[in-house]
Design goal:
19 helices, Amino acid/polyamine transporter I, disordered C terminus, single chain, two-stranded antiparallel ribbon, mainly alpha, about 65% helix, disordered N terminus, globular
């Protein structure tokens, strides 16, 4: 058996819960990117209801994930690592499936939002720039070049450490509050909000199918407060900061996902099909704030999308680092640079997303293919919670939710599994999902199993076992990131593996 590589550098404990909240301010950007399509397909009232319902589910899940985050405080990578811990004694392949499903869901934010930024910039300031270069699949134009530039920019921001990324998150997150307030509150005082713009577009069984498919898609945006769990080993007080970050961000997300679609829908009505990918914000902001302020708020809105890209790079790269650390993919990704961040994983994200911009034609086709794995990772994480309650009752739980949450977790697990079923069965109902996108999404999951096999057989010289032995109690080193009394520690103290 080959000697296992050990990463000498470690993630630093430098974050507080409000830093996690700032990172999770990426969540409104997810809504901004997909809201136009959903209003166009569902109607205004229907979109408000589905976005709010999905964010409510995300809030419930955050309570559950807070327990698992403090059960495994040494694990970067978020909910997919908790799924692995819950399932590894029963079926070890769930780990890589959950991990890569989670990673691709976060990683493709770069290409989706980069392209939305490109579309907004071109529509507002370069509307007559129509040149394109055909690469054999996509007609690459100015918006694509802007998207690639944004992807490279957020890579540069993240590779220099978590602190620069967090400070930029504060700046862009603060700027985000202006257009959020303008759209959520101002229309009621300016007289731009009209009940006549609100319509319910879901009727009969066809409406139920459409609602379930869009709830499947909304999960990509509304469940994302779980991002705070990815940074659990990096909080100064892992127990307290993780819980506060997750729950405060989930509550904020629920408020925004209710009030933002309501304010925008009541002010603008259903957007034209041709402007649904984001450009409809330009006339909406002009109507609400006037032409003088529209450009300012558009810049702030673009800043919020950059924030989402920065947070997504930080999260997705830690997911890859975490699964390599737990022997589920190639060991080369188990690496931190001199700034104590997983720069190799960030580079993988950058390259993958540049390729998606160049060779996948639709923003939301990218979203669809990634969402299969992302929602599945929640199914595996929630079922992992149930298995951990059964298989490891004596494991320390610095945060332990009540017995009722076991029932809630089971219901949410089944519900998310049903959403995956609807998403896979009816891709065309989205208007942009195709069977090709489905095949690509499933291919990513199958690729994760191949990389898992390569790591175990080739790199580690071991054999694949479908049921792995697990300890019933953690070692002191595993719980060390909690610190004395639950997690306090020196700001520059690395967590102990």
């Amino acid at each position: 058996m080959t000697e296992r590589a050990v990463e000498k550098r470690q993630l630093l404990k430098v974050l507080r819960w409000w830093d996690g909240f700032a990172i999770a301010l990426c969540n409104p950007g997810f809504l901004v990117a997909a809201l136009g399509f959903s209003i166009g397909a569902l109607g205004t009232w229907s979109a408000v209801a589905l976005w709010a319902a999905s964010a409510g589910i995300g809030l419930l899940q955050s309570w559950i994930y807070a327990e698992m985050a403090c059960m495994f405080p040494d694990k970067p990578g978020g909910i997919s690592l908790y799924a692995h811990e819950g399932w590894r004694a029963r079926f070890s392949l769930i780990g890589p499936l959950a991990a890569f499903g989670y990673w691709i869901g976060w990683s493709v934010v770069l290409s989706v939002f980069g392209k939305v930024i490109g579309d907004l910039v071109q529509a507002r300031w370069f509307p007559h720039t129509t040149w394109t270069v055909f690469d054999g699949v996509v007609h690459v134009g100015l918006s694509h070049i802007i998207a690639i530039g944004c992807i490279v920019l957020v890579w540069l921001v993240n590779v220099f450490g978590i602190r620069p990324a967090v400070w930029i998150s504060y700046v862009t997150g603060g700027g985000l509050m202006v257009p959020l307030a303008a759209i959520m509150i101002a229309p009621y005082f300016t007289g731009d909000w009209h009940l006549s713009n609100m319509a319910w577009g879901l009727h009969g069984f066809a409406g139920i199918k459409l609602a379930m498919v869009y709830l499947f898609l909304c999960a990509w945006s509304a469940y994302t407060s779980e991002v705070c769990a990815t940074f659990a080993p990096e909080y100064l007080d892992t127990r307290r900061d993780t819980s506060k970050a997750m729950r405060s961000s989930a509550a904020f997300t629920l408020g925004v996902f209710l009030l933002f679609p309501l304010g925008l829908g009541g002010a603008t009505g259903v957007p034209d099909a041709g402007s649904a990918e984001g450009q409809f914000y330009i006339p909406a902001l002009t109507k609400i704030a006037g032409s003088g302020m529209a450009d300012v708020m558009l810049v702030l809105l673009i800043g919020s999308l950059l924030l989402s890209m920065i947070s997504s790079t930080a999260d997705a790269s830690r997911a890859l680092y975490g699964i390599a650390r737990d022997d589920m993919t190639i060991r080369q990704l188990f690496h931190l640079n001199k700034h104590h961040v997983p720069s190799r994983a960030m580079t993988v994200d950058m390259v993958v997303n540049v390729l998606l911009v160049l060779f996948v034609s639709s923003n939301l086709a990218i979203l669809y293919l990634s969402n299969i794995g992302y929602v599945l990772s929640h199914v595996f994480a929630l079922s992992g919670f149930l298995l951990l309650r059964r298989d490891r009752p004596g494991w320390p739980r610095p945060i332990k939710v009540g017995t009722a949450w076991v029932v809630i977790a089971a219901v949410l697990m089944v519900f998310n599994a049903v959403l995956v079923g609807f998403g896979v069965a009816y891709p065309s109902l989205t208007g942009y999902g195709t069977w090709t996108d489905l095949i690509i999404g499933v291919g990513v999951l199958l690729g994760s199993v191949l990389l898992f096999a390569y790591r175990r057989i080739v790199q580690d010289g071991a054999r694949i076992t479908l049921r792995e032995p697990v300890a019933l109690l953690p070692s002191p080193e595993q719980m060390a990131p909690l610190g004395a009394g639950g997690g306090s520690g020196d700001a520059n103290e690395p967590y102990t593996r």
